[in-house]
Specification:
about 525 residues; alpha+beta; Sulfite Reductase Hemoprotein, domain 1; Alpha-Beta Plaits; five-stranded antiparallel beta sheet; binds siroheme; binds iron/sulfur cluster
């Protein structure tokens, strides 16, 4: 739909871009873009609309694009991983991949002229990157051990795929959902440990029984933004697994048609819920759905602390194990990806899973092969028993590639954790999350200690610094952390973190570092 000149005059920049031409329309122009090159492209297409196809122009590395995939439930097979490895391999030291905080992969270094061929390669192995950026529904998350965890309540893999298929028209792109007021996150949990961080999604399905029947309580409106962060609130609805796809559709339609669009800082679903009140929102969803929603079950089944799944675990299938490998801050290079694909093929069934903590799980390793699997040299690089601070470290992209970033994150995070670990002994992991700016992609509010990038003045100079968050609780009774200290220069951060670790997490100073 193309808006009239008078109508577009009052729209904000992003609404204007969308009303002039749907983001998905650039799909038909990729061969042309590849021919003319990124420098000659119209800015709206290059900087924004390409994101509807998961292609992100990076002002920090102009000409080297980022490609964000969609990996529903964070599941990928070895053939797919090899294709992705071969894609980043062609870019040499510019090429790598990051596991994201939504159980997904982003490829780096991509050149526009290669996109048509890359898309053919992705399609051949059943991968898509469609609708993964801008005002679209992001990668849909689920328990990383669905179908293999002996204690799960429901295997959500098929459901997550169905929701993605509905939203993206089976990966081809679906103009019904390409002009939402803002980005949108969905999570579906069939596990007991809230592995998906349900509370920070626009819609989350949480396992709950109504009498004897299994289904989900639904919470809505959770989000982080620079302006505001809020945990999701109950919709007071319980749905069966069969009702999940229609309910997602109905909520998306209500959001699409009624969500606030004037101010981009106030366009996420929670702002509409605020304006209407949850009762009216619920009844509008019911109207769209064409039926009454059943009231929420009295209690849900999230009764465990969150498990990071690093290490060796028995599967529900007798004789099989899954092994969680720690991938420092989620960064992979082509050779790593090829190795991971190989060990998944040789020892498992060619399946690889990603976690929201930016790690990898290889399932289906039978008892007889386990020792050989664990002696593979890649297990030294991607440990099954990493040290406590490194183990639970999460970081967003930061200044290396992201133009919103106020600080460098990933490399700094790894180095600082290693330094702290030489000075301190910790008995258990402390979840430290880094995020390069207040957009909170690294989810500092769910961490034990969250570090949010900022600029700091010190001795007349502007330096990279962080605001410190604490109190994030995950799993059962999840709650968001809050800012406890502002504007700590990164160069002064180590002693501050050391004190916090000693005071709140029982860290002990190693003898060579005590005075
Ligand atoms: Fe994010 C924008 C990276 C998870 C909140 N996020 C961005 C952009 C696209 C900005 C840009 O164009 O440069 C970043 C791309 C940088 C790059 O080159 O990698 C970016 N976000 C990421 C990832 C890769 C962080 C990571 O290292 O893992 C995550 C990708 C997930 C995925 O696979 O789709 C990522 N972003 C999140 C999350 C966490 C989550 O979903 O659990 C959040 C907070 C939760 C939420 O959205 O409610 C998040 N990202 C944002 C926001 C703030 C949204 C808002 O309502 O204001 C922005 C800015 C925006 O959309 O305008 C943003
Ligand atoms: Fe970029 Fe900020 Fe998101 Fe980090 S939190 S990836 S710096 S937008």
């Amino acid at each position: 739909m193309v808006a009239t000149a008078t109508a577009t005059a009052s729209l904000n920049k992003f609404e204007k871009i969308k009303s002039e031409k749907d983001g998905l329309a650039v799909k038909a122009q990729l061969e042309d873009f590849a021919k003319i090159g990124w420098e000659a492209m119209e800015e709206g297409d290059r900087d924004y609309r390409l994101k509807w196809l998961g292609i992100f122009f990076r002002p920090v590395t102009p000409g080297k694009f980022m490609l964000r995939l969609r990996l529903p439930h964070g599941i990928i097979n070895a053939d797919q991983m090899r294709v992705l490895a071969e894609i980043v391999q062609r870019y040499g030291s510019d090429g790598n991949a990051d596991i994201t905080t939504r159980q997904n992969l982003q490829l780096r270094g991509i050149r526009l002229e290669d996109i048509p061929e890359i898309f053919r390669l992705l399609k051949a192995v059943g991968l898509t990157s469609v609708q993964s950026g801008m005002d679209n529904v992001r990668n849909i998350t689920g328990s990383p051990v669905a179908g293999i965890d002996a204690d799960e309540l429901f295997d959500t893999r098929e459901l997550v795929q169905q929701v993605q298929d509905m939203i993206t028209n089976k990966g081809e792109g679906n103009p019904e959902f390409t002009n939402l007021p803002r980005k949108f996150n969905i999570a579906i949990a069939g596990c007991r440990d809230n592995s998906v961080h349900a509370e920070i999604n626009d819609i989350a399905f949480i396992p709950a029984f109504s009498g004897e029947s299994f289904g989900f309580n639904v919470i809505v409106g959770g989000f982080f933004s620079a302006k505001r962060c809020d945990a999701a609130i109950p919709l007071n609805a319980w749905v069966t697994p069969e009702e999940v796809v229609p309910l997602c559709r109905a909520i998306l339609e209500v959001f699409r048609d009624n969500g606030l669009r004037a101010n981009r800082q106030k366009a996420r679903l929670m702002w509409l819920i605020d304006e209407w009140g949850i009762e009216k929102f619920r009844s509008e969803v019911e109207k769209q759905l064409g039926k009454t929603l059943k009231e929420a079950a009295a209690k849900d089944e999230i009764i465990w602390e969150k498990c990071d799944r690093i290490g060796v675990y028995r599967q529900k299938q007798p004789g099989f194990n899954y092994v969680g490998l720690h991938i420092p801050v989620g960064r992979l290079f082509a050779q790593d990806m090829l190795e991971i694909a190989r060990i998944a093929d040789v020892y498992g069934k060619g399946e690889i899973r990603l976690t929201v903590e930016q790690n990898i799980i290889i399932p289906h390793i039978n008892d007889a092969c386990l020792a050989a699997f664990l002696s593979e040299s890649i297990i030294k690089k991607f440990a099954i028993n990493p040290t406590p601070l490194t183990r639970a470290l999460v970081s967003c992209t930061g200044a290396e590639f992201c133009n919103f970033a106020l600080i460098e994150t990933k490399n700094r995070a790894v180095e600082l954790m290693q330094e702290l670990e030489t000075e301190l002994t910790l008995k258990k992991p402390v979840r430290i999350h880094w995020t390069g700016c207040p957009n909170s992609c690294g989810q500092p509010q769910v961490a034990d200690i969250g570090l949010m990038g900022t600029k700091v003045r010190k001795n007349g100079q502007t330096l990279e610094g962080v605001d410190i968050y604490m109190g994030g609780k995950v799993g059962k009774d999840a709650q968001l952390g809050t800012c406890i200290r502002k504007s700590v220069p990164c160069e002064d951060l180590k002693p501050v973190l050391r004190e916090l670790l000693i005071k709140h997490f029982d860290a002990e100073i190693n003898s060579e570092f005590s005075n």
